[in-house]
Amino acid sequence: MSLAESLEQAAEALPGDADSIRPANGDPSQLLELLDAAAAGRVASWLLANYPDDGAELASCWLESPAGVATLSRVAASALPKPGRKALRRVLHQARSRGIELDEETSEPEPRVARLPSLEQAFESGYVSPYDPRGGRLVYLAASNPSGGVRVFELLLDEERGVVDFQVYSAGRSQVKRFIRDITRRERFAAIEVDALAVRALIARRAADHPGTRPFPSGFGEWRERLREGASQVATPGEEVREQLGDEACSEAVEALAAEVVAGRLGPWPPPPGRLQEVVAGLRQQIESERGAAQAMNEEKLEQTVRQTVDSLYSAVSGTGKASAERLEETAYLMWRDGQEETARACLASASAFRRDDIAGSPVARAMTEALVTALLDDLREQSGDAAEAERG
């Protein structure tokens, strides 16, 4: 159900507030203007209790104004059912990442909340997306422009490829708000808000690990030093969640996470294309060599050779193994922020398995390597079949 539809349900359930809810047409900002303080608190509480995800969406939008923060302070977390409390907890975490301190139990704001920065004052916010199947993720840093308006930095980061793409935009604050609303609500790879310094730490890490054989994207060099300012001692989101949760996870949660890999919803984060091409070329050369010696590689030996090769690619000492561990830790943070603590622990446990080189003992590592093994075997079988047919012809 969309937020607009949930608000219509709220209007049905709260007839005394319906005349203020319906004219807003599902727009959170307009709704906040139309409702008085008590009514806004009732609507937020009702949505969190009955439609937690939509309630969290409404609350996140209301964090953009002091009036909205004051309204959320009236929401009694103890009166909400468990899903509503979880949704409210996520919003409170989002508030803290903006420098808004709210007590998680009572939702009472500290005095400084009333002194939120106005639209004319300086601000900075950060956002990160989940990883795509190839292993890249988008991160955003929005910061006040001294000459007016806002600068938005958009980067595609990859644990092995470094800084893959870089863009910087200048826009008015209303345009940036719409842009941020779009990236945080899109259907796939929706971004979440994190501490801006954590985004700077991620950028600094990827810039430091950027392959020396490839230049930085155009324009990044000009901004590199400024983008990593203040980030030298800052933990990344993945480091933060590991500190909070450790890496102990139940086997059921780890198996469920492996099933996500098998279903194509997580990973497999293969090696960079150049490295993968080298591996495939080497395997083809080995097949051709055996064929030339009149010892055609049988299916069992082919599969064994490919598995050994893939295991070496994902080993603890390889770039892909280290990258997979870090991606799983960063994914754990996203799960943790979404209230999926067991899944977050499963990500952290699987990351530790990669760091220990325990691919065989990790369901998630096995699922990721199996995805690459299957793809490579299909490619090699096709190439081998084509070559054999050509010889017969």
Topology at a glance:
Layout: H1 3-13, H2 18-21, H3 28-34, H4 37-50, H5 52-62, H6 66-72, H7 82-97, E1 124-128, E2 136-144, E3 150-158, E4 162-171, H8 173-185, E5 192-194, H9 196-208, H10 220-227, H11 237-245, H12 251-262, H13 273-292, H14 299-313, H15 319-337, H16 341-355, H17 363-392
Antiparallel strand pairs: 1-2, 1-5, 2-3, 3-4
Cα-based radius of gyration, to the nearest Å:
25 Å
Number of DSSP helices? Answer: 17
Which strand-content bin applies to the residues? 5-15%
- Uncertain residue segments: 103-121
| Major β-sheet strand ordering | 4-3-2-1-5
> So what's the oligomer here?
single chain
Helix-strand category: alpha+beta
Order of helices and strands: HHHHHHHEEEEHEHHHHHHHHH
Largest sheet: 5 strands, antiparallel
Give the overall form.
globular
Strand runs, count: 5
How much helix, percentage-wise, in residues? 55-70%
The pLDDT mean sits at: 84
Distance between the termini: 60 Å
Core attributes:
393 residues; alpha+beta; five-stranded antiparallel sheet; 57% helix; globular
How would you describe what is shown here?
The structure is a single chain. The chain is α+β, with helices and mostly antiparallel strands. Helices cover 57% and strands 9% of the residues. It has 17 helices and five strands. A five-stranded antiparallel beta sheet has the order 4-3-2-1-5, with helices on both faces. Strand 1 (124-128) and strand 2 form a beta hairpin. 37% of the residues are buried. The model is unreliable at 103-121 (pLDDT under 50).
